[in-house]
Please model this.
Amino acid sequence: MSSLEKVLTLPCGAEIPNRIAKAAMTEGLATANGLPTPELERLYGLWSDGGAGMLLSGNIQVDRDHLERPGNVIVDREPDTEMQTALASWAKAATRNGNHFWGQISHAGRQTQKIINPNPKAPSAVKVNLPGGQFGQPVALTISEIETIVARFGICAAALKQAGFTGVQVHAAHGYLLSEFLSPRSNQRTDKYGGSLANRARALLDCVAEVRAAVGAEFPVAVKLNSADFQKGGFGFEESLQVAQWLQEAGVDLIEISGGTYEQPKLLGIAGIEEEEPQSIPKPASSTEIREAYFVDFAVAMRAKVSVPLMVTGGFRQRAAMLQALDSGSADLIGLGRPMCVLTDAPDQVIKGLEVLPRYEDSLSLFPGWLSWLTKIKFFKALAGFSVQYWYFGQIDALGRSGKSDPALSVFSATKQTMKQANQLASALKDSS
Model:
């Protein structure tokens, strides 16, 4: 038996049957009102059959006015019968192969697009610094509003547990609301939620406590945490280490290490839009020489500070690198994302011996070679980076609607398709409000 096949026992006592997880990826397949659909069931049924020990959902939002994109599942209140039935059908399909299915609970904060909310709520009135005008001027949350959001995290977690999800993950990475609270760039408050790191981490820790109270001690509660924002004046690695220790004290069962925001999208594996902040991290041991994953180095350093299980996602393609990360103790769970948008059974293939998964993004580009000079312009650099992500959105959409991926889809067509669907869903959401 390889390390990939070993059971992972979490602090709460739950067991994940192997060491590969399907990472959270936005789906955009819910109704305009945030109801899970048969397309989501088809998608997650395929992924369940694919052999991962645990599947993470995309963003399940706790506020319909603050979506990461139109088509997010929304659980922002006690679910009615229709919602609870839809959630249960989704969970049943996503666990049909005996694997775990965890819901990723989130609030998009200032990274809510204008087509959803032109003035989203955020820790402070600091606008996303991206060209193109997709994001509006945010409004600072009141303390009462923060407390309402914290309560909604608990309401959502309880609903997911009741529906048959086997765990939840609190999203505190990638520049969404809880990540915004952690960063001094986006959190300029002077009350108990701003200033010191302890204050900036308060919203996250309050959400974790609320979720734990809602689901009980034996239900897995995870957190997705930025290792760093990779921006000058942002949330840094030393701060991340401290927050990880606080999360361990709070009783979380797993920390997934990620990094970046929309402004500096390390999470996408693409060059940043803003100037990058150099990060000082310890040099990994020789046993981790194969370091294709973006955040393994951070995991190595974090392992020295916490004993809570760590999940590392982003960039893994070689089976040898996955085994080395597990065997060295720098990761307890390997997250796979993009490969599973085309090869839904990538976990099963890797466990059975497939040495290298395809890196589709290496051959994807919005602009043909003779137009590559456009990426020197800030707007087109951002567009080119996110358009590759839209190609993966297109694969997820195809899997959900037809059960088959569409590798022949062009980046341009995928971008056009994603934007069209987003506008249609945003319009439908406004009409229903």
Q: What stands out?
A: The chain has one domain: 3-432. Residues 3-432 form a domain with the TIM Barrel fold (CATH 3.20.20.70). The mean pLDDT is 89.
